[in-house]
Amino acid sequence: METLRIELFGHFQVTVGDRAVPDATWSQRRPAALVKLLALAPGHRLRRDQVMDVLWPELDPAAAGRNLRKALHAARRALDGEQGADLIASVGDLLCLPADRLSVDVDEYRSAAATARRTRAVDAHVGAIERYRDGLLPQDVYEDWAAAPRDALRDDWLALMAEFAELLETRGDLNHAARTVQRLVAADPLSEDNHAWLMRLYSAAGRRGEARRQYQRLCDVLDAELGIEPSPSTQRLYEEIRSNLAAEPEQAIEVWERVGDLRAQSGDAAATITAYERALRAGPDASTAVRLHRKSAATLVTQQQLDAAETHLDAADRLGPDATDQGRLAGVRASVMRERGDLAAARQLADRAHQVAVVHGDADAVVEALEEQAILAHIQGTWRTALQLQMPRLAAVDLGGRVSRFFEINHCIGQYQLYEDALAGDVEQYARETLALAERADAVAVQAFAWCLLGESLLLRGHWDAAAACLDRSCELYAPMGSRSVALPWLRRAELAICTGAFDEVAPYLGRASAIAAVTPLARHAWGRLHATAALAALERDDLDGAVESVRAASRTAAHYGDCASCGLLLNPVGAETLARTGDVAGARAFAEAARRAASFHDSMAWTAMAESAAASASVAAGDPVEARVGFDSAAALYEKAGQPFWAARSRRQAAAV
């Protein structure tokens, strides 16, 4: 049987076997539109009523049905004459393209983009970016049905190019990075951020004349299109470049430190270290060098490169750091000792770091020390007591915009409390005790934390009304802290809305969580769960397109912000289920493997259930219904033992549906 290839980027082209279908064959719009819709659909299949709603929304079902039959007949003849029914099959109410003999360039782009984001390889990015060509179906620009997928693919392509430019900048290839940002500017001339980025790249590469001309182009386009001037920050950047206020070495140091900070935020440790080392080679002053050595050491600790981390710490010590820097260096040494297993030394160093930070009023250092103390307490099994003992200090210290940094870490640790078999049973009691202590101490942020933990415990056990009250109270207490708060209570509130079928409430809660995730310094704890929750809501509404887009969005945000294995665990079973429904066997298996790997590190029936569920979805994708039923039944039994009735019932429904 012949293969079918469909190209949707640039010029629409269909090839059957080695025969290209002539353009003249598609003189009728609707047969071509039917093929395009099926090529774009998840799993390359659509219900007849879905096609009719898209192509003939103004007609009654009978008339639309007649038009669909005509279009289907014409499309089949265009593809392969009398054999065309093999290429667009009717399976019950579904119209399907042949998954085992089909290739679509849009699918290939998405796969290439995912590979580029996973590997962060230059060649992979170049290959993925070039697949986009002239965008999706430019000849169908006035077709309403093409607008949403065109915009989604364009947004993804722009995001991928921005990620590529960041990668090139991190590696010191400033000219290639500038060429990539030029494409971003050409694609969106009104994006002031991209113009400013290009100015900085030109300046860092010694191309100051081009940087000044780029600013003038920005002024011209903003004036012509919007009647406004560039923002004050961009004007300041221009003045610095024009007047050459910063010497070349100083500017290089600033650029590379900023690049390192950005790559650290996205979890790209290797690129982070490279950027900081470039800044150090540019000859910073002693104070800046101490800071760069500290940041380098902290990043190396995350990669278990402890000897290299200590080399940077020793170098910082030799530069004569002031008292504040000594405290922050002690905090990083605490993490080194923690990773070496010397918890007593780590505790002493963390306590010293906290004391120094408090004395010198360094709020960022206070939070860093509190984070390290929380992690140590978690490892030593004393986290619950330690958090309660910190109550007076937390009530007395104004964490301000740093509240998310401290409580995101503790909410992350809270996930272990909620899901580990040995801990989950009395989380509700602990949350109530902590809440009482926080109220007596007037520690508002701790109250918000405790209300959220209590709500999560009740949510997992199926106590919907009580969970709603607790999570709402957590949101109320966190809300005055602004966008630099904690996203988790809003994310859990959205999850509760899904559990109770209140789907119209999901988007507002996720919207508030998105606003927080976009600015919090620990965004990696939020985005995976956010997109997983959005995908779950879409699956429950039978909106496969929405679920697929949410899973893809998770890949994009992970590339930019990094991810957290424990906070984002829900993405594994939901992602596997979503991709299984599209027939993406490799994608479903990748999520299943991630779930298995995460569960293997913990004694948790719930996390093992997630792994079983994800593996079962992969079996569905692979066409093994027997294995899939076994997996879903196993997941249901584990969820039942873990006391999570919603997920147990959902797994049983999945088993029955196979």
Characterization of the model:
Among the domains are: 4-105, Arc Repressor Mutant, subunit A (Orthogonal Bundle); 569-658, no CATH class. With 658 residues, it is mainly α. Strand 2 and strand 3 (19-20) form a beta hairpin. Helix 20 packs parallel to helix 23 (444-460). A four-stranded mixed β-sheet has the order 3-2-1-7. 73% of the residues lie in helices and 3% in strands. It is globular. It has 33 helices and seven strands. The mean pLDDT is 91.
Topology:
Blueprint: E1 4-7, E2 13-16, E3 19-20, H1 29-40, E4 45-47, H2 48-55, H3 61-80, E5 89-91, E6 94-96, E7 102-104, H4 105-119, H5 122-131, H6 144-170, H7 174-187, H8 192-204, H9 208-225, H10 232-243, H11 248-265, H12 269-281, H13 286-302, H14 306-318, H15 323-340, H16 343-360, H17 363-380, H18 383-389, H19 391-396, H20 403-419, H21 421-424, H22 427-441, H23 444-460, H24 464-478, H25 488-499, H26 506-517, H27 524-540, H28 544-561, H29 571-581, H30 585-600, H31 605-621, H32 625-642, H33 645-657
Parallel strand pairs: 1-7
Antiparallel strand pairs: 1-2, 2-3, 4-6, 5-6
Helix pairs in contact: 1-3, 2-3, 4-5, 5-6, 6-7, 6-11, 6-28, 7-8, 8-9, 8-10, 9-10, 11-12, 12-13, 13-14, 13-15, 14-15, 15-16, 15-17, 16-17, 17-18, 17-20, 20-23, 22-23, 23-24, 23-25, 24-25, 25-26, 25-27, 26-27, 27-28, 27-29, 28-29, 29-30, 29-31, 30-31, 31-32, 32-33
- The CATH architecture of the domain at 4-105 can be given as Orthogonal Bundle
Helical/strand content category = mainly alpha
List the quaternary state of the chains: single chain
What general outline do the C-alpha atoms trace? Answer: globular
Keywords: TPR repeat
Pfam family, one: BTAD
GO molecular function, one term: DNA binding
TPR repeats: 253-286
